[in-house]
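HOLO CASE FILE
Compound: zinc ion
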Amino acid sequence: MHEISLLESVLETLETQAKQQGFQQVKQVVLEIGALSCVEADALRFGFEVVMKNSLAEHAELVIIKIAGQGICPKCQQQVLLETLHDPCHHCGSFGVTVLQGQSMRIKELIVI
Ligand SMILES: [Zn+2]
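Model generated. Tokens follow.
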């Protein structure tokens, strides 16, 4: 389950930010997950509690926002909604759509004490 290692890197980021900004506890973590990132929201929720145990985010609430996959067609230059990385263009059927968004997971927002 690669969600665990993702969460571990989230925790590292939280710890670094806590040092830089001087907060001690995280109340809420808002994560943005791209539809093309292969990250399972359920697995994240499940792993969150485990990974954050005994950390500054132990009692934090996890909020997950899903971001649609979006790309641009190299042939017809139209914006394309993507459900998978290898979807063809809906307009002209070309493959090789350039992905613009939805491939990554990132921390969108933190509420800290
Ligand atoms: Zn196209």
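CASE NOTES: The pocket of zinc ion is lined by residues 73, 75-76, 78, 89, 91-92, 94 (CB under 6 Å). The chain has one domain: 2-112.
CLOSED: yes
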